[in-house]
Amino acid sequence: MHPELKYLTYRGIATVLQLMPEPVAIFVASLVSRLVMRRNVDYRFHYEEAIRRVLGDGLSEREIRSWSTRVSGSYARYWVDGIRLNRMSGYDIDSRMMVDSGMSYLVDAYRQGNGVILALAHMGSWEWGGAWLFRQDMPLAAVAEVLDPPKLFDWFSSSREAMGITVIPLDKGAAGKLSSKLHDGGLVGLICDRDVTGQGVEVDLFGDRALLPPGPALLSLRTGASVLPAVVYQGPDGMHIATISAPVEYNPTGNLRKDVSAYTQEIIYRLESLIRRAPDQWYIFSRNWIS
Fold this sequence. Notes:
Structural class: alpha/beta
Radius of gyration: 19 Å
Largest sheet: 7 strands, mixed
Shape: globular
Order of helices and strands: HHHHHEHEHEHEHEEEHEEH
Strand order of the largest sheet: 1-9-8-2-5-3-4
Helix content: 40-55%
Number of strands: 9
């Protein structure tokens, strides 16, 4: 697709979904998402590969298809939430967000002033959590893949900035900007269940080897920031429910390569338990495992 046409298509879809009543927008997006899941063999294959690892090999074909249908609905809601969020009132954001456990871990770590890394997965509606944290005087910075064309990335970034989320482009300067943010005692969200740079470390993910981002572990070792795995699940009636894990404890050995690998593994073990609570909200549509 031509870059300009791609930009106009995304902007057009966003405008339509913003103008629709929310239930209608979710219904329409769900129909489209389900159609894409049926027709895109790669998306369906990679998610089915993931759900078998999460729930075991005993699933029937009917059960696997049911999980694929459910995840397509969750993914549709994720997009509708993200597109409409910057037009939500503060009252809507507050009234539709709750933390079921772990808020004290985040508050305590943030008050220490050494920086906090929220280790996130591609699931739920994490942007809603970012918008809510901004209203709690804990603004979040997040890394995002650079999109083509640049004006599409600029639009995406500006919409996140309107929510109170600072967007840091995933380029050569990202590590320095993140370190600076953490040294200042800031809060950073890093999605770490999929390697997009080709520089991942090999860890165990649901019983098989996978290459996953070393960023949270490496930044924590370099800055002293705490790492807290977290997820914002989609709840009933438009609610969003956050779960925040306790800081991951790790004692460095002095061997940076081994420390990054072992620390990353500890983070992933925590994320696994969070993903298992709602695998139909895990948007894993690309190859993740080495095998």
